[in-house]
Amino acid sequence: QVQLVESGGGLVQAGGSLRLSCAASGSIVGFNITGWYRQAPGKLRDLVASISSGGSTNYADSVKGRFTISRDNAKNTVYLQMNNLKPEDTAVYYCKLRELVLQRDYWGQGTQVTVSS
Q1: Counting Cβ atoms within 10 Å, is residue 93 exposed (0-12), middle (13-18) or buried (19+)?
Q2: How far is it, in rounded angstroms, from Cα 77 to Cα 4?
Q3: Could you tell me which of 60, 65, 51 has the C-alpha nearest to residue 95?
Q4: Phi/psi of residue 59, nearest 5 degrees
Q5: Is there a contact between 8 and 93 (Cβ–Cβ < 8 Å)?
Q6: How far apart, in Å, do the first and last CA atoms of the chain sit?
Q7: What is the torsional sign of CA 32, 76, 64, 57?
Q8: Which has the least CB within 10 A, 31, 51, 65, 113?
Q9: What is the mean pLDDT of each run of 10 residues along the chain (117 residues)?
């Protein structure tokens, strides 16, 4: 069983920065992908960025050039550095880890990011 704990959310002014962390505990089996998702009120949960255990990254068009996803394998932690934040980035941010071999998904509890104009 894998548990994910997000941290780093908060309130920031437009143009500011935040760094989110997603710390994993437990036994992760095989190749995996960790993604950051966000969900604003009344909207669907969308993928923001993802990173594989091999280091390959993927970003939503809306955050390219502003957000950077990275991982520290020694700490079992994935980060999302968010720069030049905009009010439309306001949402609850969740991390999800997918074990591709076992086809299992694990979600964190979410962390609120609020960007004021």
Answers
A1: buried
A2: 9
A3: 51
A4: -135, 150
A5: no
A6: 40
A7: negative
A8: 65
A9: 95 98 90 95 97 96 98 94 98 96 94 97
Task: Write out the two tokens for 72.
Answer: 């520290």
DSSP 14: T
Enter the tokens of residue 55: 């280091």
Inter-residue long-range contacts of 60-67, CB under 8 Å, 24+ positions, other chains counted: 62/88, 63/89
Q: What is d(CA 104, CA 57) in angstroms, rounded to the nearest whole number?
A: 20
Q: Which single residue is written with the structure tokens 């997000």?
A: 6
Tokens 């990275």 found at: 70
Residue type, position 116, single letter = S
H or E stretch covering 69:
strand 67-72
